[in-house]
Write a structure and sequence with these properties.
Blueprint: H1 2-33, E1 40-47, E2 50-57, E3 64-72, E4 78-80, E5 85-88, E6 94-99, E7 107-114, E8 118-121, E9 126-127, H2 161-166, H3 183-187, H4 193-223
Antiparallel strand pairs: 1-2, 2-6, 3-4, 3-5, 3-7, 7-8, 7-9
Length: 224
Protein backbone atom coordinates (compact mmCIF):
# COMPACT_ATOMS: atom_id res chain seq x y z
CA UNK A 1 0.00 0.00 0.00
CA UNK A 2 2.86 2.31 0.64
CA UNK A 3 3.91 1.98 -2.94
CA UNK A 4 0.44 2.87 -4.12
CA UNK A 5 0.34 5.99 -1.97
CA UNK A 6 3.67 7.12 -3.31
CA UNK A 7 2.47 6.68 -6.84
CA UNK A 8 -0.63 8.73 -6.10
CA UNK A 9 1.38 11.53 -4.58
CA UNK A 10 3.64 11.65 -7.60
CA UNK A 11 0.69 11.76 -9.89
CA UNK A 12 -0.81 14.64 -7.93
CA UNK A 13 2.47 16.54 -8.06
CA UNK A 14 2.74 16.00 -11.77
CA UNK A 15 -0.80 17.24 -12.32
CA UNK A 16 -0.14 20.28 -10.17
CA UNK A 17 2.97 21.24 -12.09
CA UNK A 18 1.16 20.75 -15.37
CA UNK A 19 -1.77 22.93 -14.24
CA UNK A 20 0.54 25.67 -13.06
CA UNK A 21 2.40 25.59 -16.33
CA UNK A 22 -0.81 25.77 -18.29
CA UNK A 23 -2.10 28.68 -16.20
CA UNK A 24 1.15 30.54 -16.65
CA UNK A 25 1.03 29.97 -20.39
CA UNK A 26 -2.55 31.17 -20.58
CA UNK A 27 -1.67 34.24 -18.54
CA UNK A 28 1.21 35.14 -20.83
CA UNK A 29 -0.96 34.55 -23.87
CA UNK A 30 -3.72 36.70 -22.39
CA UNK A 31 -1.31 39.50 -21.73
CA UNK A 32 0.01 39.21 -25.26
CA UNK A 33 -3.49 39.52 -26.71
CA UNK A 34 -4.63 42.30 -24.34
CA UNK A 35 -4.95 45.88 -25.58
CA UNK A 36 -1.75 47.89 -25.06
CA UNK A 37 -0.93 51.57 -25.59
CA UNK A 38 2.09 50.59 -27.69
CA UNK A 39 -0.32 49.31 -30.35
CA UNK A 40 -1.60 52.83 -31.06
CA UNK A 41 0.08 55.48 -33.23
CA UNK A 42 -0.87 58.90 -34.64
CA UNK A 43 0.29 61.03 -37.58
CA UNK A 44 -0.61 64.30 -39.31
CA UNK A 45 -1.54 63.79 -42.97
CA UNK A 46 -2.80 65.82 -45.93
CA UNK A 47 -5.60 65.03 -48.34
CA UNK A 48 -5.14 67.62 -51.03
CA UNK A 49 -5.29 70.97 -49.27
CA UNK A 50 -7.08 69.55 -46.19
CA UNK A 51 -5.21 68.44 -43.09
CA UNK A 52 -6.09 65.40 -40.95
CA UNK A 53 -4.87 63.55 -37.88
CA UNK A 54 -5.01 59.77 -38.33
CA UNK A 55 -4.82 57.36 -35.36
CA UNK A 56 -4.04 53.69 -36.06
CA UNK A 57 -4.99 50.79 -33.70
CA UNK A 58 -3.14 47.48 -34.22
CA UNK A 59 -4.71 45.70 -31.27
CA UNK A 60 -5.26 42.13 -32.52
CA UNK A 61 -7.76 41.41 -29.73
CA UNK A 62 -10.19 43.97 -31.21
CA UNK A 63 -10.84 45.65 -27.88
CA UNK A 64 -12.99 48.78 -28.44
CA UNK A 65 -11.05 51.96 -27.71
CA UNK A 66 -12.09 55.62 -27.62
CA UNK A 67 -9.65 58.13 -29.13
CA UNK A 68 -9.62 61.82 -28.15
CA UNK A 69 -7.29 64.42 -29.69
CA UNK A 70 -6.27 67.74 -28.09
CA UNK A 71 -4.33 70.68 -29.56
CA UNK A 72 -1.71 71.97 -27.12
CA UNK A 73 -0.79 75.67 -27.15
CA UNK A 74 2.47 77.22 -25.98
CA UNK A 75 0.65 78.59 -22.92
CA UNK A 76 -0.38 75.08 -21.88
CA UNK A 77 -4.04 75.48 -22.90
CA UNK A 78 -5.57 72.47 -24.69
CA UNK A 79 -8.36 72.55 -27.27
CA UNK A 80 -10.26 69.38 -28.16
CA UNK A 81 -10.28 68.51 -31.86
CA UNK A 82 -13.73 67.39 -33.00
CA UNK A 83 -15.51 64.65 -31.03
CA UNK A 84 -14.04 61.43 -29.53
CA UNK A 85 -14.13 58.47 -31.92
CA UNK A 86 -14.30 54.71 -31.24
CA UNK A 87 -12.05 52.20 -32.99
CA UNK A 88 -11.67 48.40 -32.88
CA UNK A 89 -8.14 47.37 -33.64
CA UNK A 90 -7.00 44.62 -36.04
CA UNK A 91 -3.70 42.92 -36.66
CA UNK A 92 -3.35 44.93 -39.90
CA UNK A 93 -4.42 48.16 -38.21
CA UNK A 94 -7.74 50.03 -38.00
CA UNK A 95 -7.75 53.82 -38.34
CA UNK A 96 -9.88 56.81 -37.32
CA UNK A 97 -9.46 60.24 -38.92
CA UNK A 98 -9.90 63.67 -37.32
CA UNK A 99 -10.32 66.57 -39.80
CA UNK A 100 -7.97 69.30 -38.62
CA UNK A 101 -6.44 72.23 -40.50
CA UNK A 102 -3.21 71.82 -38.57
CA UNK A 103 -0.42 74.37 -38.59
CA UNK A 104 3.26 73.56 -39.06
CA UNK A 105 5.12 72.41 -35.93
CA UNK A 106 1.93 72.21 -33.86
CA UNK A 107 1.69 69.74 -30.93
CA UNK A 108 -1.27 67.39 -30.34
CA UNK A 109 -1.99 65.08 -27.42
CA UNK A 110 -3.76 61.82 -28.37
CA UNK A 111 -5.53 59.96 -25.54
CA UNK A 112 -6.62 56.28 -25.68
CA UNK A 113 -9.27 54.76 -23.39
CA UNK A 114 -9.90 51.02 -23.81
CA UNK A 115 -12.09 49.73 -20.97
CA UNK A 116 -10.03 48.97 -17.84
CA UNK A 117 -6.96 48.00 -19.85
CA UNK A 118 -5.71 51.30 -21.28
CA UNK A 119 -6.24 54.90 -20.17
CA UNK A 120 -3.13 56.65 -21.46
CA UNK A 121 -1.73 59.14 -23.96
CA UNK A 122 0.24 58.08 -27.01
CA UNK A 123 3.86 58.98 -26.34
CA UNK A 124 5.52 61.08 -27.52
CA UNK A 125 3.00 63.78 -28.42
CA UNK A 126 2.23 64.24 -32.10
CA UNK A 127 4.18 67.13 -33.71
CA UNK A 128 3.02 68.17 -37.19
CA UNK A 129 5.44 68.63 -40.13
CA UNK A 130 7.15 71.96 -40.71
CA UNK A 131 5.30 72.41 -44.03
CA UNK A 132 1.55 73.04 -44.23
CA UNK A 133 -0.73 71.11 -46.54
CA UNK A 134 -1.29 74.07 -48.83
CA UNK A 135 1.27 76.72 -49.60
CA UNK A 136 0.20 80.28 -50.16
CA UNK A 137 0.29 81.02 -53.87
CA UNK A 138 2.26 84.13 -54.74
CA UNK A 139 0.50 86.45 -57.21
CA UNK A 140 1.84 86.30 -60.75
CA UNK A 141 3.50 89.62 -61.64
CA UNK A 142 1.84 91.45 -64.51
CA UNK A 143 4.32 92.24 -67.31
CA UNK A 144 4.89 95.96 -67.75
CA UNK A 145 3.39 97.46 -70.91
CA UNK A 146 6.08 99.26 -72.95
CA UNK A 147 5.38 102.98 -73.38
CA UNK A 148 5.43 103.99 -77.06
CA UNK A 149 8.16 106.48 -77.86
CA UNK A 150 7.09 109.67 -79.71
CA UNK A 151 8.52 110.08 -83.22
CA UNK A 152 11.21 112.73 -83.67
CA UNK A 153 9.76 114.37 -86.80
CA UNK A 154 6.17 114.61 -87.93
CA UNK A 155 5.63 114.98 -91.66
CA UNK A 156 3.15 117.70 -92.66
CA UNK A 157 0.62 116.31 -95.13
CA UNK A 158 0.87 117.94 -98.61
CA UNK A 159 -2.46 118.70 -100.29
CA UNK A 160 -3.00 116.80 -103.49
CA UNK A 161 -3.27 118.47 -106.90
CA UNK A 162 -7.01 117.88 -107.07
CA UNK A 163 -7.51 119.52 -103.67
CA UNK A 164 -5.35 122.55 -104.61
CA UNK A 165 -7.07 123.01 -108.00
CA UNK A 166 -10.55 122.71 -106.55
CA UNK A 167 -9.91 125.32 -103.90
CA UNK A 168 -11.42 128.76 -104.88
CA UNK A 169 -8.93 131.50 -105.67
CA UNK A 170 -10.68 134.01 -103.51
CA UNK A 171 -13.82 133.12 -101.67
CA UNK A 172 -16.07 136.12 -101.05
CA UNK A 173 -16.48 136.99 -97.46
CA UNK A 174 -19.92 136.66 -95.92
CA UNK A 175 -19.25 139.57 -93.59
CA UNK A 176 -21.36 142.70 -94.32
CA UNK A 177 -19.63 145.71 -95.97
CA UNK A 178 -18.84 148.79 -93.91
CA UNK A 179 -21.45 151.56 -93.88
CA UNK A 180 -19.32 154.04 -95.96
CA UNK A 181 -18.66 151.75 -98.96
CA UNK A 182 -20.31 152.45 -102.32
CA UNK A 183 -22.76 150.21 -104.13
CA UNK A 184 -20.00 149.11 -106.46
CA UNK A 185 -17.97 147.87 -103.55
CA UNK A 186 -20.95 145.83 -102.32
CA UNK A 187 -21.26 144.20 -105.77
CA UNK A 188 -17.65 143.20 -105.77
CA UNK A 189 -15.98 146.18 -107.72
CA UNK A 190 -12.53 147.24 -106.57
CA UNK A 191 -11.50 150.75 -105.41
CA UNK A 192 -10.13 151.83 -108.94
CA UNK A 193 -13.61 152.17 -110.44
CA UNK A 194 -14.06 155.82 -109.37
CA UNK A 195 -10.66 156.83 -110.76
CA UNK A 196 -11.42 155.28 -114.11
CA UNK A 197 -14.82 156.99 -114.24
CA UNK A 198 -13.25 160.41 -113.50
CA UNK A 199 -10.65 159.95 -116.27
CA UNK A 200 -13.36 159.02 -118.75
CA UNK A 201 -15.38 162.11 -117.82
CA UNK A 202 -12.33 164.33 -118.33
CA UNK A 203 -11.75 162.83 -121.75
CA UNK A 204 -15.38 163.47 -122.68
CA UNK A 205 -15.05 167.12 -121.67
CA UNK A 206 -11.77 167.55 -123.58
CA UNK A 207 -13.27 165.93 -126.65
CA UNK A 208 -16.37 168.13 -126.48
CA UNK A 209 -14.25 171.27 -126.23
CA UNK A 210 -12.19 170.21 -129.24
CA UNK A 211 -15.32 169.66 -131.30
CA UNK A 212 -16.69 173.03 -130.20
CA UNK A 213 -13.56 174.95 -131.19
CA UNK A 214 -13.34 173.08 -134.46
CA UNK A 215 -16.89 174.06 -135.43
CA UNK A 216 -16.23 177.71 -134.61
CA UNK A 217 -13.20 177.81 -136.83
CA UNK A 218 -15.14 176.36 -139.68
CA UNK A 219 -17.86 178.99 -139.25
CA UNK A 220 -15.33 181.84 -139.33
CA UNK A 221 -13.75 180.57 -142.55
CA UNK A 222 -17.06 180.24 -144.27
CA UNK A 223 -18.16 183.81 -143.33
CA UNK A 224 -14.94 185.34 -144.74
Amino acid sequence: MSITRRSARRSVRILGVASATAALALGVAGQALACNISEFSAEATCTGAKGSIVVTDKDASGTPAVITVFLKSDAGVETQVGQPQEVKGTAEGATVTFSEDWKPNATYRVHVKAGHLVDQDIKPDLVTPSTACKKEESPTPTPATPTPKPSKTTATPTPSASESSSAPAGAPSNAPSPAGDSNLAETGANSNTGLIAGAAGALVVVGGGAVYFGMRRRGAKSSS
